[in-house]
Design goal:
mainly beta, 258 residues, single chain, three-stranded parallel sheet, globular, 2 helices, twelve-stranded mixed sheet
Length: 258
């Protein structure tokens, strides 16, 4: 109970583990000296229902939750400031991922969580850093019906693939309206993705942000590569998205598939 720092916390295949209350005093994960960050990895702990760790703060290199069949939610960790890589994968009853404080995440992967319905990162500071642009990968979450990332302005990749097959309602990408530059956009096989108007700023012929030389139709587009296919009507091509947003034509060039 008095353990305040560990270099890494890795828990795998512990069938009797129900909570992390024994680490309630843990405030930092990582070495006490130097720039290296630590890891929080919890894999295949089938009876784990909550994490706790209310005092956890600072920065983490890897945060991995994988295959924890009874974990239902993530608590808020008000002192946490930075996660380099966050992987939320195949947690059978996890219904919501959010509740994070204002935080920076470089790479977020959310895949194969059968009951996950909402990804709410409304309090997120950024995906990536000024010298390290980040990415979001959201895949194969069959009940997903809400995605919120209003603070994200530029990324390497946004991939949303194979979500919503059994979801009771549809979801939209309105919260990405602040995006001003993206390298790769992939929207594939999302059974309930119905509104993508939040992406019109990326898809129009105006260069709003880096790496282009400036505004105007002759600048480098804000989006370099796009693959959009097999979603609901209105989100099946760049042209459909622009039509739904009432925006200007899209620049089609080599590397674009839609």
């Amino acid at each position: 109970d008095n353990l305040g720092r560990v270099g890494a916390l890795v828990l795998r295949n512990i069938d009797q583990l129900t909570s992390l209350s024994g680490f309630s005093a843990l405030a930092e994960i990582g070495p006490s000296e130097g720039a290296q960050l630590g890891a929080l990895v919890i894999n295949n702990c089938d009876r784990l229902t909550s994490l706790g760790l209310d005092n956890l703060g600072g920065s983490i290199d890897q945060f991995v939750l994988n295959g924890n069949d009874t974990l239902q939610f993530l608590e808020e960790w008000p002192g946490l400031e930075f996660i380099s890589r966050m992987n939320i994968i195949e947690n059978g009853v996890l219904a919501s991922v959010g509740n994070l404080p204002p935080i920076t995440i470089v790479e977020l992967r959310v895949r194969g969580n059968n009951e996950l319905s909402v990804l709410d990162y409304s309090s997120l500071n950024a995906i990536g850093q000024p010298d390290l642009i980040g990415s979001i990968f959201i895949e194969a979450n069959p009940r997903l019906s809400g995605i919120f990332f209003p603070a994200v302005t530029k990324m390497n990749a946004l991939e949303i693939i194979d979500n919503g097959a059994t979801a009771p309602g549809s979801f939209n990408l309105d919260s990405f309206s602040a995006l001003e530059w993206l390298d790769t956009l992939t929207l594939l096989n999302n059974a309930n993705l119905s509104e993508c108007g939040g992406l019109t700023r990326l898809l129009d012929d105006v260069d709003d942000g880096e790496p282009g030389p400036g505004p105007g139709p002759d600048g480098i587009p804000d989006l370099l590569t796009v693959h959009i296919e097999n979603n609901l009507a209105g989100c099946n091509s760049a042209a459909e998205i622009l039509d739904s947003g009432g925006d200007t034509p899209f620049i089609f060039d080599d590397g674009f598939e839609d």
